[in-house]
Amino acid sequence: MSTSRAEQSTPSAVVVKTTSDAISVELDDGRTVTVPIAWYPRLAHASLRERQNWRLIGTGEGIHWPDLDEDISVEGILMGRPSAESHASFERWLSSRAPRAGKRTQPARAKTAKSTARRHIRG
Fold first, then answer.
1. pTM of the shown model
2. What is the rounded distance in angstroms from the CA atom of residue 8 to the CA atom of residue 11?
3. Which residue of 33, 59, 90, 116 has the smallest Cβ count within 10 Å?
4. What angle do CA 70, 50, 43 make, to 5 degrees?
5. CATH number, domain at 44?
6. pLDDT in tens, 43-58
7. What are phi and psi of 11, to 5 degrees?
8. Are 55 and 64 in contact (CB under 8 A)?
């Protein structure tokens, strides 16, 4: 006797919110998944403005931060996978962000950044 397995598909992101310590992704299946921003060093070292500048990849398979050259897949978030970027690669990226007037180069503190980014973009 054979059984049929229902094909499982990864849900798509529809809304992303970022704070100084978390990323929350609202999915098209009604769930909201929140992960620590510390899992993604580029986001942790970004300014609030840079974290708020995101767009969906494709039809919501992932999220892209153009100012940070960071991409995170919904599948990776659901699997609980933090960034796989090597320490050497991250250090090169960090050093390429020469301190600019008014730019944050250290991780944001939870006390100072209270606002969130909220966008709804369709692929």
1. 0.73
2. 9
3. 59
4. 45
5. 3.30.2020.40
6. 999 999 999 999 999 9
7. -65, 165
8. yes
